[in-house]
Amino acid sequence: MEKTKVRDLMRPVQDFARLSSGATLIEAVEALEKSQQDYLAGKAPQRILLVENEKGEIVGKLSPMDVVQGLEPNYSKIDNLKEMSRFGFSAETLNTMKDEYRLWEKPLSELCRKAYGVKIDSFVRLPAPDHMVAAEERMDKAFHRFVVGRHDSLFVQEGKQIVGLIRFSDVYQSIAETMRACPLAE
User: Fold this and answer.
1) What distances in angstroms separate CA 138 from CA 133, 135, 152, 175, one per listed residue?
2) Starting from the edge strand earliest in sequence, which strands make up the sheet with 11-12, in order?
3) Which of 35, 53, 82, 170 is the most buried (most CB within 10 A)?
4) pTM for this one?
């Protein structure tokens, strides 16, 4: 594994379903459902849905959590909510922020309007640097990013272009195979 490069375990962007960044929330929900159905039916090797801009460049990925977050635009005012909870901010502090930013005050009552009116480019963001790794990097850099960031996948870049994803499930499978191939210690 020491000589394994990220490129060796990545899956190219062509292997993933895609959605336009100009899609609406309802189109995103439908695309996520289709992706899930295709995966469960064995028609697709994964259920990850990539988001592409008008030039066909990958600008992110979409999950059901992103759709729910897209229903409440005020989340964009709170940077790094995930890190805040992970680094010890109490539930009380996070609840105070929820009240301060008036989160979830009326989004569910406006669900139908939002489903057809909100475009996903209003909340899908480019992946953060800790969510990316270069295709020619050694796998130890990817291991570190997976462990520290608790990511399920990392975007793989050549220069500034996203060319693939490396999934933790593929990395783990490779590690497990390597461990099983080790001779037993005497």
Assistant:
1) 10, 8, 18, 14
2) 11-12, 161-167, 153-158, 132-134
3) 35
4) 0.77
Owning domain of residue 19: 6-71+107-181
* Cα 74 from chain centre: 20
Intra-chain end-to-end CA distance of the chain, in Å? 22
Residue 163 in tokens:
């060319």
Residue 73, pLDDT score: 63
97 located within any domain: no
Q: Is residue 40 part of a domain?
A: yes
- Is the residue at 91 inside a domain? no
All residue ranges of the chain with pLDDT < 50 are: none
**Residue (of 34, 73, 45) closest to 170 by Cα position:** 45
Helix (H) or strand (E) holding 156: strand 153-158
